[in-house]
C-alpha cells in the first residue's frame, strides 16, 4: 500500500498493511533528524521515517492581527498568545471568566478573523 491507500483504508475501517504514521516535531528535533539521516529538508526526514501524513495549513490573508510590546499577539480566533521557548502559550484563556459553558462567549464569537479570506495554496 502507498500512504494514501493506507490512510484511506484506516479511515474506512479496513485493515491496512501497517498503522499509518504521522509525526509532528519541534524544530530542534527535526534539525537532529536531518543531521542523523544526512538530508537537507523535512520531507526527506518524513520519507526516511515512513511518515504517511502531511499537514496543510491555510494561509492567513485577512486584516492585520494585533501584536503587543511584550511579544504576544492575538491569533485569528481572537486568543492572545506568546511564545514560551518553541511553544505557543495562551496568555488570556478565552473561557477564564466563564461562569457556565452556556454563558461563555469567545472573543469575538468564535469566528476566525478574516475567515472569508483564508485560503489554501
- Fraction of residues in H or I helices: 10-25%
- Series of H and E elements: HHHEEE
Radius of gyration from the alpha-carbon trace, in angstroms:
19 Å
Sequence of strands across the biggest β-sheet: 1-2-3
Number of domains: 2
Spans where pLDDT lies below 50 across 5 or more residues: none
Helical run tally: 3
The fraction of residues in strands falls at 5-15%
Shape: extended
Structure notes:
It is built from three helices and three strands. The chain has 121 residues and is α+β, with helices and mostly antiparallel strands. It folds into two domains: 47 residues, no CATH class; 47 residues, no CATH class. Strands 1-2-3 form a three-stranded antiparallel β-sheet, with no helix packed on it. Strand 1 and strand 2 form a beta hairpin. The longest helix is centred in the N-terminal third of the chain and has 11 residues. The protein is extended, with a radius of gyration of 19 Å.
Task: Please give a handful of descriptors for the protein shown.
121 residues; extended; alpha+beta; 2 domains; 3-stranded antiparallel β-sheet; 3 helices
